């Protein structure tokens, strides 16, 4: 019955508004509106000819059929020979030259590039999709389909594109048991219980998404690597994953553990210069390449966060890298050696210590010592994916060593799929930043990592993607834009953020101008917004650094060895990294850049506290003080997210109901969290600095009644740690089976919205019931999944009850019924006039 009902509803829904899960992401091929569709039908030949039988070319063909069927409701006829009628011809340039020289223009394509052309010959008009390689054929096909989906003309095609750099990869931090380190979209698409999943169809779906962007490689296991991946027994699992990705032109790479020669190789050492170890790596590579001849190579995290590395045996990173790289070399494999090497037990009392220095300190003196199939894989910033960091100085240091940039697509420090944060504008700032690395030319990071500045043979971009089995891939539809944007930038870093988000939005949600305007402006401003409420002025994300990297904990970064210090004290805030007065980090940049960061006056405001410790009263360029900026930006950030949710609400009916509802819920949640951050950070700095907010907002929350001041039955008041995690630094929780908190309303009569701020930890499902003067007005169960078991900012949640008639003296009773270890915690209620 239910099934039939669903079917009827689906049939009744207008075209284009069918419920969508997000699984097809930007490759939905939604039906085009009639007049537009007709135009394309007229322009498109009815036959598709595929030259070549390679798997990616076959994928290109099936993708073309699928796309045209979806968008234009036409089934192209597939053929293997060029007919005398118009055709779409797909193949490599070499294949086309051979089979149909009249269709091949003079010229060449390079590096996985493609060429889309309209060719008129003997009165017949054909569309030619030529690739340099079979991958290029696939990329050209996706490009043609994208043009159609975006409504661009395909009448007189003459479009040649070549990628900016050869390495356009993603990494995955997936564990073999199926969990994902820093993944927010469910379990691994690759692994389950120590093996490749039985059903790898999601891997194939993923390969398709990657290919549509021109991404040509992926590592498939965590850089915190399980040594088992190199055991012979495991090899068939790798083969299966590689088989699933091959048709999409995506090579597989493995993250390896440097200790493997000892842990799984049966040797007594992993010293890279030991002949046995050299032989181990060589034999291992030979063995793996016999099974997976097109393996991309290896990735290594060494000497970092507890991973073993060459330092344990007195060798250098170059010794380590070259030995492994030489084993890969005969097979055409490459070796990514991560630049993320640092000491996480640094003494914070030593004012010269600075984690930001680590990458440059570790690799500077080794420049030129690495083999040419080694790449130093460098995170965009010198710390660790914080909400704002300068470009890593190492990009400008290495001249005789290959490098790639590592960007994080998964939103570890960026709201973990629960907050919408579009990262392309942030990446663009780094990619476009001129490192002044070579006199007489501009040397933006994008050119340096592509090897263009110092004539390196190769380079490119790597994104840590960590998609999961959730249909939305990331746990948030909006987060898909980050994978899309990464891929587009890896192909062409000169694209603007605006262009990328405009494409993504139209492909993902359709062409409705109101949808496009709302989504693009939200996405484009979302990074600044997130920065505003989580860590402005270069403070870095003020999150739980030693814990979940999600909730708010301003001091979690301090007085420990992890080195993400901001040194907030009574007088000032920021880390002094100048050469003259601080750690000398600023001096790791080339002189022109170093000069800018050396002094407070020339450092951009956005990075001020990253480079300098200043008094709270320090004036910014706008004339505002640092402390007032911290207050204002948090209020502004929270207001902007509330606006996002409202703007989205206005799109009802213009987006399919499912994604509409899911994104609305996400934005409303984010709006609630932004208030928690706002209140917490502002209170913290107010307490620390003792300087009042010019607008007197801190501690003055209209309509807010603290739970600890309510009349309590069985509820117990408790302090929250860190204190800024709860309003008034306190919460109440229920130690028995059922507790009550009663609030008395004392305002004017009228319609009111009541927000209940409660705590939803992940170790139970407590129930809440709200009644006014004995009349039940709301009840719910706290089952959201956030990464905390504690009553703190991360578990802080809100339930809004709209439109309640309240009169002075009314009693609002909240009953909390704990379940599991969830104690039905409450922070406050807030009563405001219904808008
Ligand atoms: O950002 C940190 C993460 C770790 C990660 C590490 C790295 C895979 O918190 O989870 O480990 O970076 O990049 O190696």
**Small-molecule components bound:** 4-O-methyl-beta-D-glucopyranuronic acid
According to DSSP, the number of beta strands is 29
Indicate the low-confidence ranges by residue numbers.
1-16
Helix share bin: 25-40%
Which structural class do the helices and strands define? alpha/beta
Strand line-up in the sheet with most strands: 7-10-11-12-13-14-15-16
User: What number is the mean pLDDT?
Assistant: 96
Spatial extent as radius of gyration: 28 Å
**Head-to-tail CA distance between termini:** 41 Å
Q: What is the beta-strand fraction? A: 15-25%
Number of helices: 21
Broad shape:
globular
Biggest β-sheet description? 8 strands, parallel, barrel
Characterise this structure:
Strand 25 (767-772) and strand 26 (775-781) form a beta hairpin. The strands form seven sheets. An eight-stranded parallel barrel has the order 7-10-11-12-13-14-15-16. A six-stranded mixed β-sheet has the order 2-1-3-5-4-6. With 835 residues, it is an alpha/beta fold. The two termini are 41 Å apart. Helix content is 31%, strand content 18%. Residues 1-16 have low confidence and may be disordered. It contains 21 helices and 29 strands. 4-O-methyl-beta-D-glucopyranuronic acid (GCW) is lined by residues 173, 181-182, 223-224, 301, 340, 384-385, 412.
